[in-house]
Design brief:
201 residues; mainly alpha; Arc Repressor Mutant, subunit A; 10 helices
């Protein structure tokens, strides 16, 4: 393996270690030493990439934004009906399977850390507003008859619903099961007049 490839592989192992620890242990477990142990490298190597805990947390949030964003970009760029694309994007943000529940844990852990750190809060706000803008575009595509204020109100309600249920599901996956989350999402979309053909029939 070349030196460049070896460095890339090390960076990938460290990134995956950051993700796993954040998902399993939350921000309190995300330390340089824990990441090094999980990645099978020295603390110095981790420190070379991440000078402190804040940078580890920021990296976890960036990974979450990248992973969810890539899928949502593909969904939004597809040729499905606008209402179906809106539903798919919102469902992708929900914690409907083990991978998505892991993402919800990372999101919630980062949010908890951001409450006491202005720089982390700014990063969180930027990512959340990006998601809100995406949902706004999709709502407007489904309901071109709505004005900007109506689109903004409904988009905010849908994002708050999905993210709120995600937070609750982290602690109580039985009550907020995938089936329950899907039913709540479909009811909300139907109530707002945004249901796709399959959900409406």
């Amino acid at each position: 393996m070349s030196r460049t490839a070896d460095r890339a592989a090390q960076a990938e192992r460290i990134s995956e270690a950051v993700w796993r620890i954040m998902a399993e242990s939350g921000p309190q477990g995300l330390t340089l030493r824990a990441v090094a142990a999980e990645a099978g490298c020295t603390t110095g190597l981790v420190l070379h990439r991440f000078p402190g805990k804040r940078s580890l947390l920021a990296h976890a949030r960036d990974l979450l934004h990248e992973r969810t964003g890539e899928v949502m970009d593909r969904l939004e760029a597809g040729d499905g009906a606008p209402a179906d694309v809106l539903r798919d994007v919102l469902a992708h943000a929900a914690s409907l399977d083990p991978v998505k529940r892991q993402e919800a844990r990372v999101w919630l852990g980062y949010l908890a850390a951001a409450l006491a750190d202005e720089d982390l809060a700014v990063r969180h706000t930027r990512a959340n507003r990006s998601f809100l803008a995406r949902v706004g575009r999709l709502v407007a595509a489904v309901r071109p008859d709505w004005d900007g204020r109506e689109v903004a109100v409904v988009s905010t309600a849908l994002v708050a619903l999905v993210e709120g249920v995600n937070a609750l599901a982290v602690a109580d996956a039985e009550t907020y099961s995938a089936e329950a989350q899907g039913a709540v999402l479909d009811r909300a979309l139907g109530s707002f007049g945004l249901a796709g053909r399959a959900a409406a029939t």
